[in-house]
Amino acid sequence: MANQQTSLDTVFHALADPTRRAVIGRLLGGAAPVKRLAEPFAMGLPAFMKHLSVLETSGLIRSEKAGRVRTCHLNADRLAAAEDWLSEQRAVWQGRTDRLAAFVESQNPPTK
């Protein structure tokens, strides 16, 4: 359980940055070379590579090098794990708000 929590921590840490979220969004359309992923961002390649390193550490992406080209791939399983956690939290809070709404309605019945 603690290992899974640490794993989710690294995923949410990676997703906390807008640059990294944009990279994930781009990779949802398919694998891409690092140079192409870096083009939309106004930062040097070393700074961009730090973002990729965070994404790789979290397991959200993996990369492979062929010759001089490093290509990044999305790890959809890691993204699905974060989505599963969010869905669980949504269900818990939805149940709580539903019970609160029922309680409020029971205290203030509609007048006719």
UniProtKB/TrEMBL annotation:
SUPFAM superfamilies recorded: Winged helix' DNA-binding domain
Protein name: ArsR family transcriptional regulator
SMART domains associated with the record: HTH_ARSR
Pfam families the UniProt entry points to: HTH_20
Record domain HTH arsR-type: where: 1-94
PANTHER family: SLL0088 PROTEIN, TRANSCRIPTIONAL REGULATORY PROTEIN
Residue stretches spanning the membrane: none
